[in-house]
Amino acid sequence: MTRRTEFDQQLDAMQQLLIQMGTQVEQAIANSMRALQDVDVVLAKSIVRDDAEVNQMEERITEMGTMLIATQQPVAKDLRRILVAFKISNDLERMADLAVDIAKVVLRLEGEDLIKPLIDLPRMAEIVQVMTYESIQSFINENVDLAYKMAKDDDTVDALYSQILRELFSLMVENPKTASQGMLLSFVGRYIERIGDYATNIGENVVYLVTGKRPDLNV
Amino acid sequence: MQVLIDIKNLDLFYGEFQALKKVSMSIPEKAITAFIGPSGCGKSTLLRTLNRMNDMIPGTRIEGSIRVGDTDIYGSDVDVETLRKKVGMVFQQPNPFPKSIYDNVAYGPRLHGVTKKHELDEIVEKSLRSAALWDEVKDHLKRSALSISGGQQQRLCIARALAVNPDVLLMDEATSALDPISTLKIEELAQELKDRYTIVMVTHNMHQAARVSNQTVFFLNGEVIEYADTEKLFSNPTDQRTEDYISGRFG
């Protein structure tokens, strides 16, 4: 097969940047959960600060893809690869924003004791981190099966989220003084649940990249 | 869509060499069908079978059938001149006759017996309008066809083909000798003409096929590898060889 050297190199470079972005976002999610568990304000601040890098990576991927479309007229899978890179980088950027939202909750909790030991939130976060990792892996290896597996994991995340809400709600009803923190922790649950949805979106995009067809895994 | 050209099990040999292998396809009417593929894949050969231009090449042998409308064009009772009136052709290099613009367009109708000046005037104007050339040449119809630009000459050749009222217009790399602006004009013209004519084009420019055609056929070594709606073929082809070719990873 003839390679389009210049084009293929630029596609590879874009893909590498996307992988790098994915790794960074995965790290931000892991750190945000650690910061929450330890109410670690320093770590939370670093998550907020590092988000600018993720935003720049997204912009860079958009620029690279736009340039490739303008100069190389890609078709078929080459074109899908670029379109999917746009979408995945956008999803990753949103995931990083949600990690920042969790970090900001940590900043608001500064000096407070947690109203309950965190059990289900870290479990949710752990699944979502694995999903984030797998979403990037499914993209790198064009692994459709992994994309479908993530959709199943997302159902578990959704179930945990409902459970957390129920639990926090009872706690707040029993002791209204916990309401302020209870609300914040419910938000965290919501943020993690959204991260899971974005990871599932990435899986959908991988299915589109490989098959050219758009499934709906977020149901 | 109604089928106008029906090709069945077509084999074509140039002497010992088999240029087309069991080609079958149905080309719809009033649409643009593009043939793409690397050099020597048989796309031009197939185009030339549609108005029997290959008859002129010694040693050419054909098996299988091609119907245009109700006519088996390789049937023994077919008059080739009549066929070529119904199936017009435009070539890679504009090839106007060394005559006036008017006489170029009037050539075909005269050949087929139209002699009255007002009838010829009408046909010339209508054909030049259809070929989007009228406004540029109406004031100097008596000028030599060789004095206008390459892009205008090519549109003149299209007008000349349209003047005998064909059903099908074959375009064999019709824009490859033209600059980008002239190319775009011919592409726009093709879009307008497809409402009235069936257009089959061979192009080396894949993006032209993607821009202009409704259906695309990919050929390789004399065989049809894939025939699909253009949108489908360029976004998600079925055959890996098509994918490799259209994404420039082939040959």
Short description:
The complex is a heterodimer of chains A (219) and B (251). Chain A has 219 residues and is mostly helical.
Enumerate the spans of chain A where pLDDT stays under 50 for 5 or more consecutive residues.
none
Q: Identify the CATH architecture of chain B.
A: 3-Layer(aba) Sandwich
Strand portion of chain A = under 5%
What's the helix count of chain B? 10
Mean pLDDT of chain A: 92
Radius of gyration of chain A: 19 Å
Overall pLDDT of chain B: 94
Q: Based on the structure, what is the oligomeric state of the protein chains?
A: heterodimer
The Cα radius of gyration of chain B reads 18 Å
Layout of SSEs?
The complex is a heterodimer of chains A (219) and B (251).
Chain A (H helix, E strand, L loop, with lengths): L4 H34 L2 H32 L3 H33 L11 H21 L3 H31 L4 H33 L8
Chain B lengths: L2 E12 L2 E12 L3 E5 L6 H7 L10 E9 L2 E2 L7 H7 E4 L10 H11 L5 H14 L3 H4 L12 H13 L5 E5 L7 H14 L4 E5 L3 H7 L2 E6 L2 E7 H6 L4 H7 L5
Parallel strand pairs in B: 3-8, 3-9, 6-7, 7-8
Antiparallel strand pairs in B: 1-2, 1-4, 4-5, 9-10
Helix pairs in contact in B: 3-4, 3-6, 4-6, 6-7
What does this structure look like?
The complex is a heterodimer of chains A (219) and B (251). With 219 residues, chain A is mainly alpha-helical. Chain A has a single domain (3-211), classed as Up-down Bundle (Methane Monooxygenase Hydroxylase, Chain G, domain 1). Chain A has 6 helices and no strands. In chain A, helix 1 (5-38) packs antiparallel against helix 2 and helix 4 (120-140) runs antiparallel to helix 5. The longest helix of chain A has 34 residues, at 5-38. In chain A, 39% of the residues are buried. By secondary structure, chain B is an alpha/beta fold. Chain B has a single domain (3-246), classed as Rossmann fold (3-Layer(aba) Sandwich). Chain B is 36% helix and 27% strand. In chain B, the strands form 2 sheets. Chain B has a 6-stranded mixed sheet with strand order 6-7-8-3-9-10, sandwiched between helices. Chain B has a 4-stranded antiparallel sheet with strand order 2-1-4-5, covered by helices on one side. Chain B starts with a strand and ends in a 5-residue tail after the last helix. Classes of the chains: A mainly alpha (219), B alpha/beta (251). At the A-B interface, helix 3 of A face helix 8 and helix 10 of B.
